[in-house]
Amino acid sequence: MATLTLKNVRKIYDKKVVAVEDFNLDVADGEFVVFVGPSGCGKSTTLRMVAGLEEISGGTITIDNKVVNEVAPKDRDIAMVFQNYALYPHMSVYKNMAFGLMLRKMPRTEVKQRVTDAAKLLGIEHLLERKPKALSGGQRQRVALGRAIVREPKVFLFDEPLSNLDAKLRVTTRTELKNLHNRLKTTTIYVTHDQEEAMTLGDRIVVMSGGLIQQVDSPLHIYRKPVNRFVAAFLGAPPMNFIEGTLKRDNGLAFVSNVGNVRLNIPGRLADGASRYEGKPVVLGIRPIAMSEQPIGKFAPPPGDRVGLPGGYTITLETHVVEPLGEKIDVSCSLPGAPDQKILARIDARDDFQPGKPVILHLDFDHVHLFEPGEFGKNIAL
Fold this sequence. Notes:
Radius of gyration: 25 Å
Strand order of the largest sheet: 6-7-8-3-9-10
Strand content: 25-35%
Number of strands: 20
Order of helices and strands: EEEHEEEHHHEHEHEEHHEEEHEEEEEEE
Structural class: alpha+beta
């Protein structure tokens, strides 16, 4: 196991296309860190620079206190699992897993022991004599994992290893990966565009966009306190709703006034940090789970906040589509007077809920945020 440090790392193609810019990150020994972001954000390029498969344009990469900028990939003591598994089709599972060790001229007894131990750990010991073409996608993925495990590297690098699996298998394999890391405790960097994978797997998440780090933190902290609108929109399923409006104040009470003449009062937690934005455009971010038909528990207004003015801590929506999800339903809505302003609410299911009727929903301000305008508008309340 080892620490991993990237300091001021950048990658520029053809002297003009910036793929990664000023990337700084310290990964602790045994930590599982996930790089997440949309296609083209630079996450895979960063991973390949760590692996030595991509030459860096600037900065330093350090593995276990050793700068590896000029070190060949084979000498970095890392193991990488690719999206397409990269198995040798003419070799058995055993030989695929053992091949790298045999190239190192490791004693056959040790090779056999490592392969056997890894196969048992992954539950594929009964597949050792099969060829890759006789395996399912999930089994091939385990073989690729096994080939990485037998090397006992200092760092594991995963480049979207689950993207070729079906939805159900992705969920089960994700759990297996988490259990595997808990047992091996190997320093791990995992790249994905799937925010659900990022949230469930990572000790910390690195959210990227346009080659830049937007936020680094634990999954729960990023979800609850996104630093900007991009992070808020990217992490969370279903995605956060955004309502553009103007921040105003009436009799000491702050509220957001929308183009559809919707008025949403803002409790003290948000209003205190937003006072300098009075009279300016803002964006109200509301997570779908932040709405409920009943103002109970955490959905009740904060003590001492005024709720008597029009709007209160509720939002009235026109319903369009209802999608049952078992105990919950997703309700696609719009703001009255602003049909283009779409809102998705995830609320408790009831049989008599029908589309086409207005619904009044109460807001939980633990999941409501205020942002500056723009795709990367910062979170005003932080």
